[in-house]
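CHAIN AND CONFORMATION:

***
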Amino acid sequence: MAQQATVQSKSKNTAEGQRIRIKIKSYDHKVIDSSVRQIVDTAMRYGAEIHGPVPLPTEMKKYTVNRSTFVHKDSRDQYEMRTHKRLIDIYNPSAQLIDALMDLNLPAGVDIEIKM
């Protein structure tokens, strides 16, 4: 029982520390990987503890449209949009790291959601 108590106290200490959770979304997997690399390099430069990047499931939306405008219902085109997602957790960030992440210049087409 003493071992369980120490394990629980360690997890509480990590939960009490400050954490930044960054969710990144993009339609292009190459762009999202380069953006994640920039964020991780910046966080490592300031000595923060990083968990990730964790690849989240790719969301696929499929659209089916008729090729013709009037008849020929059997002739259709199918299109899909893939949304790639990544998750990065940064534990115990410093003020300089937060400023550096805010000043980071990421390519267009990348959606970033930051939670403290």
